[in-house]
């Protein structure tokens, strides 16, 4: 039976301590038994596992999302190495990595689940394993290029770290990736998922209309303004262990320009510029909350507040606000006969708002300014995702070609 090697980020330090003290059986009895079984074929199993925990501790501390992504990718790589190849993770060679990639493309049925399953739960002082958990999810369609690319990225980062820690001196992942028949080099036109003008008009307009009868929808309206008007990710508006977005993060420079300081990916701080239009909705939202029209330097109030309870809102709660507005807009679109727009909106996510704002503003703003407000580390990222001018020019120049 396969057993999950890693618990939650919160539990990781306890797993590290139990493994070092040889007391894993006291809290993780099934995992301890699984390791004993693997030891018969792979004597280095504990050394391998200790390194996995170290890797996740180092790379997972920045955010839980990063931790989960690396945990899922590397954990199943470990399980395959031990259970299929019967080798230590550091004894694998190029042909082993190639075999693993093929396995990921078509994992064994016994390694897959048709639903997301929890890993461990507390029971009488122990963390009990869920026997329905599996390292893979059943795929109804072919594995996406993004999934394949994420797998290679995780493996590459893992082996680079192993080299730095002098656990191995070889990283075969780049050469396997370069020659992989499953990874397609992207050269086609990729446009981000965005709302059409009419979809955005309905989403924002309907939410604004509801505010007249349900004032608490001012919170929905302001959230939409932040995500589209400031190109924010939901995580940048949400309460996190290392960052709490508060009103004092809005600030004004000596020339009267307003900015919002946010913590983005990789715990990087950036200052996003505010437009006059956004400032109007900031004032409107603050007046609804009974605050002065503009923030001051020492305001501790959360940017997106809870109506019940203290503190700011978490990702899932903010996502629910956006979904409320999307659902209302979808209903109105259908009612007015815009069936296709309604169908597409039913598939939209909150992240579409960031793409919508950036795609719209890319037509008028300098690329560097847009890139810095988006929080992209490289100008090329902004250019690749949002700048479609050269593509349209190429299409125009080619439309009159003769056969």
> Could you tell me the mean pLDDT?
91
Strand content: 5-15%
Helix content: 40-55%
Low-confidence stretches: none
Largest sheet: 3 strands, antiparallel
Give the spatial strand order of the biggest sheet: 5-6-7
Number of helices: 17
SSE topology string: HHHHHHEEEEHHHHEEEHHHHHHH
Q: Supply Rg.
A: 25 Å
SS-based structural class? mainly alpha
Rounded to the nearest angstrom, the distance between the terminal CA atoms is 62 Å
* Count of extended strands: 7
The 3D shape can be described as globular
Explain what the structure shows:
The chain is 52% helix and 6% strand. The protein contains 17 helices and 7 strands. The strands form 3 sheets. The chain has a 3-stranded antiparallel β-sheet with strand order 5-6-7. Strand 6 (258-263) and strand 7 (269-273) form a beta hairpin. It is globular. The termini are far apart.
What's this entry about, in short?
The protein has 403 residues and is mainly α.
Main attributes of the structure:
403 residues, mainly alpha, two-stranded parallel sheet, 17 helices, 7 strands, 52% helix
Summarize the helices and strands and which ones pair or pack.
Blueprint: H1 9-21, H2 24-27, H3 29-39, H4 45-60, H5 64-83, H6 94-105, E1 112-113, E2 120-123, E3 126-129, E4 136-137, H7 145-164, H8 173-178, H9 197-211, H10 217-229, E5 250-252, E6 258-263, E7 269-273, H11 276-288, H12 315-335, H13 339-345, H14 351-361, H15 367-374, H16 379-386, H17 389-398
Helix pairs in contact: 1-4, 4-5, 5-7, 9-10, 9-12, 10-11, 10-12, 10-14, 12-13, 15-16
């Amino acid at each position: 039976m396969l057993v999950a090697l890693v618990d939650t980020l919160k539990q990781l330090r306890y797993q590290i301590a139990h493994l070092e003290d040889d007391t894993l059986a006291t809290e993780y009895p099934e995992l301890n038994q699984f390791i004993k079984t693997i030891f018969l074929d792979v004597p280095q199993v504990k050394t391998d596992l200790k390194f996995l925990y170290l890797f996740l501790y180092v790379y997972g501390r920045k955010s839980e999302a990063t931790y989960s992504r690396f945990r899922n990718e590397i954990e199943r790589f470990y399980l395959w190495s031990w259970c299929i190849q019967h080798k230590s993770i550091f004894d694998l060679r190029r042909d082993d990595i190639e075999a693993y990639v093929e396995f990921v493309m078509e994992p064994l049925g016994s390694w897959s689940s048709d639903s997301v399953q929890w890993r461990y739960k507390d029971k009488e002082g122990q963390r009990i394993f869920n026997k329905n958990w599996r390292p893979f999810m059943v795929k109804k369609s072919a594995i996406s290029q993004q999934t394949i690319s994420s797998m290679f990225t995780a493996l590459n980062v893992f082996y680079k770290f192993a080299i730095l820690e002098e656990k191995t001196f070889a990283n075969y992942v780049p050469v396997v990736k370069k020659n992989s028949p499953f990874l397609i080099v992207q050269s086609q036109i990729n446009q981000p998922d965005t709302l059409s003008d009419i979809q955005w008009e309905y989403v924002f307009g309907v939410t604004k209309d509801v505010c007249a009868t349900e004032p608490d929808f001012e919170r929905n309206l302001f959230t939409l303004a932040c995500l589209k008007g400031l190109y924010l990710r939901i995580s940048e508006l949400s309460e996190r262990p290392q960052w709490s977005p508060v009103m004092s993060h809005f600030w004004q420079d000596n020339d009267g320009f307003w900015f919002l300081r946010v913590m983005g990916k990789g715990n990087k701080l950036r200052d996003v510029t505010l437009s006059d239009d956004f400032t109007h909705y900031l004032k409107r939202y603050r007046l609804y909350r009974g605050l002065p029209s503009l923030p001051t330097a020492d305001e501790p109030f959360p940017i997106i507040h809870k109506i019940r309870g203290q503190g700011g809102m978490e990702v899932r709660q903010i996502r629910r606000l956006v979904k409320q507005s999307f659902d209302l807009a979808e209903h109105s679109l259908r009612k007015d006969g815009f069936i296709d727009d309604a169908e597409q909106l039913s598939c939209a996510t909150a992240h579409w708002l960031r793409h919508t704002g950036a795609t719209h503003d890319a037509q008028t703003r300098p690329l560097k300014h847009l890139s810095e407000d988006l929080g992209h580390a490289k100008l090329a990222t902004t250019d690749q995702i949002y700048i479609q001018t050269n593509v349209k020019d190429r299409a125009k120049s080619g439309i009159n070609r003769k056969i």
